[in-house]
Specification:
The protein has 148 residues and is α+β, with helices and mostly antiparallel strands. The strands form two sheets. A three-stranded antiparallel β-sheet has the order 1-4-5, with no helix packed on it. A two-stranded antiparallel sheet has the order 2-3. Strand 4 and strand 5 form a beta hairpin. The protein is globular and about 45 Å long.
């Protein structure tokens, strides 16, 4: 069932509606693309519509099998997204250890080269934990978290 998110941005509302009403019906192989910028903190904005990002996920049998995006390389935009994400997380959970990864932002300022990797995942028992930790709709993860 759908519930209004704590921070009701356009992206958060779309994510809740998608999870509640759409994802379970994606039986045939399906690509979902052009995610709202609020849901994609590491993806580059679309030049023709900066409210959306160059990102897609693919689903088969109501299961997400992959996530791909054009990597954001604008340090000012990246810093702003990280700061907003951490502030929202701390508003929900004041004692959380989430923090902005300023070392990453600094590396972008110096010209960090793209460092993408394939995003293929299988629906295994570890998939749920992986999605909880890395999916853009989930909470901010501290930059020193294990496995990051």
């Amino acid at each position: 069932m759908w519930s209004c998110p704590r921070f009701p941005t356009k992206g958060a509302i779309l994510a809740e509606l998608f999870d509640a009403y759409v994802e379970e019906n994606l039986i045939q192989p399906t690509f979902i693309y052009d995610y709202p910028v609020e849901n994609s903190p590491l993806a580059k904005r679309k030049p023709e519509d900066p409210a959306f990002t160059e990102r897609f996920e693919y689903f088969i049998a109501a299961t997400e099998f992959g996530n791909a995006f054009s990597e954001l390389n604008d340090p000012i935009d990246q810093k702003g997204r990280f700061e907003r994400q951490v502030a929202e997380r701390k508003a929900i959970e004041p004692d959380c250890k989430a923090q902005v990864d300023y070392d990453y932002v600094n590396a972008l300022e110096y010209g960090l080269p793209p460092h993408g990797r394939p995003g293929f995942r299988c629906g295994s028992p570890g998939h749920a934990a992986h999605r909880q930790r890395l999916h853009p709709r989930c909470s901010a993860v501290p930059h020193d978290a294990p496995g990051i």
